[in-house]
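INFO batch 0412 | record 1 of 1 | parsing
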Amino acid sequence: MTNLEIEAFFEIIKAGSISSAAQNLYVTQPALSRRIKTLENELGYSLFFRKKGQRKIELTPKGEAFVPIAQKWLTIWQEAQELNSLDNANILNIASVGSVSSYILPRVFENIAEIADNDIRICFHNYHSFESYQYVANGLIDIALISDDIYYKGVETIPAFQEPMVLVANNSQTYPDTVHPKELDPHQEIRLPWNPEYDMWHDFWFKSTPEYRVSLDQMNLLEYMLSWKNTWAIVPSSVAFKISSLDDVSIYQIASPPPERIIYYLKSGNRKIELIDYFLKALKKELQEIPNVTNYLEMPE
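INFO prediction complete | emitting tokens
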């Protein structure tokens, strides 16, 4: 996948036809068609419908789904090119899953300024775990925090911390100190997909049918949803600790709980070792302030 191929994809959408797009890009129509064909071959599916006599081109369903992915790729490419004008040595490119970035990293970024003895600039992105593997492998991200560990060539996956899962619930419904999953009404759940191990546990107790009240993949909505009567969610301890100050929310232990969540960090090669060490020291400092977290970071003081 190249910048020229992504540029061709968006220009065809904008222009409405390959011929018009070719004119706008000052290339021949066959050359532009080859770019799209190469892109489709790399992806393994067609992006546009090709019907004889059809003047205006249309996206396939997979082509429509590819649009936000291509936009994200183009954004990353543009940001990477902008680094040419900066002192790249002091820029730390960080990625993280949403729950860690929302509830742990804000203080970590503050801690970096206290620990580092030089001017570190942080470039941060929220990515799902698999995206982070790709970007770390490609050198676009220096270090990433992820929840779903896989093997990915050239990328180290190292445990950072581990934490139990707990129940957080709106105070309109009271529970015993330790709650069994059978006592929970799935129709009032705020469903969050933490990792594959959690999903297996969840399907065992609540089945795989969508009986939740709302399903989220954006952590910034969780606190608002918990203000609704009778709602509940199962979250990692670090998240529960950060929202424990909310007036209308209580925290409970879970009988037969889900597997504890492990957060890993990813890095590749020997890039920016000093900056990464500063980040890990700052992360360790923040984790030491959060109860019930097992910290695997062994950084020199």
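INFO post-check: The chain has eleven helices and 14 strands.
INFO record closed
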